[in-house]
Specification:
- The protein is mainly alpha-helical.
- It has one domain: Ferritin, core subunit, four-helix bundle (Ferritin, Up-down Bundle), CATH 1.20.1260.
- It is 75% helix and 0% strand.
- The protein has five helices and no strands.
- Helix 1 packs antiparallel against helix 2, helix 2 runs antiparallel to helix 5 (124-152) and helix 4 (96-120) packs antiparallel against helix 5 (124-152).
Length: 156
């Protein structure tokens, strides 16, 4: 396996880890949600993150990392894909508003990451997987944004 493929393996493994963290994040937020409708949405998002993890694991097993079109580590590093997988911490003192803001940022970053991967793979099958993940993360961001607007900006 080349250095480029190993770097992609690490990125995909990190994405799997972030999906696991997103599941935990949404389940914890659902437990602390004040409204049943918010808790339900957060639980739905948590379960969708499990599906994302499974899709990534399947793609990884199917050799997706061998389909990426980057010739050198430098070319890959210049794309700075890891910026999209940065962890955004929450403090114990975080408010429900903080939780939603962090969730929106996480979903936006995940969308950008999967979109970038979809453009890098030479495999149509894997491109579809990453495009689907990107679209689902965008949908999550929009649902969270709507929840944020309903709760914190109801008069706008």
């Amino acid at each position: 396996m080349t250095d480029v493929q190993q770097t992609f393996e690490r990125l995909v493994s990190l994405a799997i880890q972030r999906e696991e963290e997103a599941y935990e994040f949404y389940m914890k937020a659902a437990e602390e949600a004040e409204f049943k409708s918010s808790a339900k949405l957060l639980q739905d998002l948590a379960h969708q993150e499990v599906t994302h993890k499974e899709k990534l694991q399947s793609a990884q097993k199917a050799g997706v990392c061998e389909t990426f079109r980057c010739d050198t580590i430098e070319e890959l590093e210049n794309m700075d894909l890891s910026q999209y997988l940065v962890d955004i911490p929450l403090l114990p003192s975080s408010t429900p508003q903080d939780v939603l803001i962090v969730a929106i940022k996480k979903e936006s970053a995940a969308h950008s990451f999967y979109k970038a991967l979809s453009e890098l793979t030479g495999s149509g099958q894997h491109r579809t997987v990453f495009e689907t993940l990107a679209n689902e993360e965008e949908s999550h961001k929009n649902r969270l944004q709507n929840m944020y607007d309903d709760i914190f900006q109801p008069d706008m």
